[in-house]
Amino acid sequence: MERTLNDAMDYARTFLHTGKVATYIPELAKGDSEQLGACLITTDGEVYRVGDWQQEFTIQSISKTITLIMALQVAGYEKVFSKVGVEPTGDAFNSLVRLETKTAHPLNPMINAGAIATASCCMDVKDPFGEFLELTRRLCRRDTIHLNEAVFQSEKKAGMRNRSMAYLMEDDNILEYDAEDVVDLYFRMCSLSVNAEDLANYALVLAHNGVDPRSGEHLLDDWIVRIVKTLMVTCGMYDASGEFAMKVGIPAKSGVGGGIMGTVERKMGLAVFNPALDPKGNSVGAYRVMEYLSHYLGLHYFSGSNSMI
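RE: above sequence
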């Protein structure tokens, strides 16, 4: 397994020059496009770490999966999906085009508008960000995960497009709280500092329907995990989700901080970090590592291969 993971890293490095770091959030422009790290954790607790796996980066849109989990826990299925849909979109992750129609509900929770709507469903508790942070720490198995204040402030300063989405949804009564308060929570959720092992820990819990196979602890209800993994398959890679489903074939979620988290049913949790992004906002290096591993380990959900076993 370790050799295959290193081979995947070598394969991915040949593509890094094709990507660019995110610049629309100024703090993210400081990222090093050559950094590449990965962590893979198997069901039996074997941990494989390579490259820049310890490098911290902000979770960005991978947080949308945890936001959805919290929203479902706090507000329940009916309320959450009265605010946001479940269908894929061919639009960019930060598009607001469809919010300008008479039916302004965002299409799914994995795009910015949808995540803002689900974040609003988390605000019925006294300290929504505190509870979100605690949930993230439990799922990632690290109690020192924290807010990256510099990225948070950078997102706030550059976040006019997200504010526009929030005000459109507030006007249509999708948001039940002040748009500025909801967007502030959303920016904080996206600005947590994590590393590849943190996200691989979280992905392993998803792979086992909410149970950490190493401790036996039941962290999430299986019906919530089912919803999250389904939306990761159909919407988790923005408007490249269909291509990723064909080439890699595992539930995954990307973020413009450079991370991609993937989960393989009953087998492993996987996370890769590389800040070089393709035009659709997905990490070039992380995508290629997962593509290689899927092929050589037989991870695709429609593959008949059991080569990793």
